[in-house]
Amino acid sequence: ARPKVGYFYVGQEVAPLLADHLYQATVDQLMIPPLLIQQATTIDEAVTQLFMHDVGSLYVVDQQQKLLGVLSRKDLLRATINATNTSTTPVAMIMTRMPNIVTMTEHKTILQAGQRLIAHQVDSLPIVEPDGVTVIGKITKSIIMRYFIEEGLHIQN
Amino acid sequence: ARPKVGYFYVGQEVAPLLADHLYQATVDQLMIPPLLIQQATTIDEAVTQLFMHDVGSLYVVDQQQKLLGVLSRKDLLRATINATNTSTTPVAMIMTRMPNIVTMTEHKTILQAGQRLIAHQVDSLPIVEPDGVTVIGKITKSIIMRYFIEEGLHIQN
């Protein structure tokens, strides 16, 4: 018969192996392609994109895919409730702009990404090249939660 | 000297001890007080509440605190972009109603709550009494993510 194997607990502390397994996954393993729009896009068009793709945030980039801004559901809700003329106002008027955007690079760990999401109270982080501005991906609270839950199901089964 | 103790890995599988520690936390240990509103509340008032308390969703209850509906940022954004008259329209017109609301009870595990959030693609779960309708708390994707990240920091330090 196949031998039963696993971790054996021998003391009061948890050794790094557990942390390695769950928390050392890196951003590039979990990041998803971001939804990118131009800064001339109207608020109405941005909201339509948000619903069409069922995402929580949009990234605004220039022609070289360099990050100019971030738009969250909250930013869009603030604009629409304030009776901004949403059919003509460009997102450039309401987006959060660089350098006020919190970003991350792809070789950081999930633990570091989660800490940053919590510290800055944001729902997503644009993942950028080492140049700090070229967008290559996106990490969200949802992705990180789903990762831990799926790992948990895997462990239990 | 204090002996070095911990888990020793002796094979290919992960035993239940890890799962117990991280994944067996229960909903009542992590749930937060929900923001409750009445169904006559206008959309404008609901959006104000959302921003004032910086939350992602509101629960609509009757006088007995029984759940009638849920309002997400997405529901409110859909209503405001559609040029609904948000200063007079009550949230009852746009909320997701029982029995179409996914709820949970307080003795379920975080793993079960996370699975339910993923399966139903919602950002939060109202936590209800065993009667299925009396609201006593709220669990969100953010809370679950923060839990796993904080546990990870704890393990590493």
Automatic annotation (TrEMBL), chains A, B:
<protein>
    <submittedName>
        <fullName>Negative regulator of gluconeogenesis</fullName>
    </submittedName>
</protein>
<dbReference type="GO" id="GO:0003700">
    <property type="term" value="F:DNA-binding transcription factor activity"/>
</dbReference>
<keyword id="KW-0129">CBS domain</keyword>
<feature type="domain" description="CBS">
    <location>
        <begin position="30"/>
        <end position="87"/>
    </location>
</feature>
<feature type="domain" description="CBS">
    <location>
        <begin position="95"/>
        <end position="155"/>
    </location>
</feature>
<keyword id="KW-0238">DNA-binding</keyword>
<keyword id="KW-0805">Transcription regulation</keyword>
<keyword id="KW-0804">Transcription</keyword>
<dbReference type="GO" id="GO:0003677">
    <property type="term" value="F:DNA binding"/>
</dbReference>
